[in-house]
Design a protein that fits this description.
35% helix, 257 residues, seven-stranded mixed β-sheet, 10 helices, single chain, Rossmann fold
Length: 257
């Protein structure tokens, strides 16, 4: 493993929840609720979608890794007419397939973790992986498999800091626990350089992905914070006193193959 890849893995390891706190959790705190991955009928444009569209012709194909409901893929249809979704949650893939059918698109889905399932997945003109890499400790095989499956371009989107940075204040409040702030998109660029991949990066501001209402947010954050159900009201009070930001710093990273 390269030095940059090792640093990336160590930075993500620092996000582990201390065993003493994790043992008190009544539910798995590492949740990705499907309700947060609904795709709007019209997907707003952003730099990530623009970089992918630059190389797409008519009837192109898109492979969306860690697809959720498929917002990264469906933002590109048209011109793309064929979409492929990979996700480790079956409910996400059901959403992806339903969204494709509603748009009259050719679609296929693959259940499992990337790159473990990569050998069963076809190549596509563009490969996208939005808001996924901070979940990937062994980053080099993940990135290499993305490149191997693209015929034109790979496009990644990620926030300027780990998405759980938004809960750092809550961890401090409820557990007196300081949370890390790395890795960052620049750390990922260092990994790509050591892989001899000539990638580009663009920083931009976009809307924060938030729950539908504060009550829903309090529930999910209570789970993420390893707190018991009876303390959900306290989490709601904390969130009312510390409302979430509406904007966040994001980065688009892309390279041609």
């Amino acid at each position: 493993m390269s030095s940059a890849a090792t640093a990336w893995a160590h930075a993500l390891e620092a996000w582990a929840i201390p065993p003493g706190i994790l043992a008190l959790a009544s539910e798995d705190p590492w949740i990705h609720p499907p309700v947060l991955f609904n795709v709007p009928e019209v997907v707003p444009n952003n730099p990530s979608h623009g970089r992918a569209r630059e190389v797409l012709g008519e009837s192109a194909s898109v492979l969306d890794v860690g697809c959720g409901g498929g917002i990264a893929a469906f933002a590109l249809t048209p011109p793309a007419s064929r979409v492929i979704g990979v996700d480790h949650q079956g409910e996400m893939l059901e959403m992806f397939a339903a969204n494709a059918a509603a748009r009259g698109l050719s679609a296929e889905t693959h259940l499992g973790f990337w790159p473990a399932v990569a050998s069963a997945v076809p190549r596509a003109d563009v490969v996208t992986a939005h808001h996924v890499v901070y979940n990937v400790s062994d980053i080099v095989p993940f990135l290499r498999a993305l490149s191997d499956h693209a015929t034109q371009r790979v496009v990644l989107e990620l926030p300027r800091h780990h998405p759980l940075v938004t809960l750092s204040g809550a961890w401090r409040h409820f557990w007196q626990l300081e949370r890390p702030s790395t890795p960052t998109p620049e750390d990922l660029m260092a990994v790509l350089r050591e892989m001899d991949i000539e990638a580009s990066i663009e920083h931009w501001d976009g809307p924060m992905r938030v729950e539908q209402d504060l009550e829903q947010a309090a529930h999910f954050n209570r789970v993420r914070l390893c707190l018991p159900e009876e303390r959900e009201g306290e989490v709601l009070e904390y969130m009312q006193a510390n409302p979430p930001l509406l904007q966040r710093e994001l980065a688009t990273i892309w390279w041609n193959v």
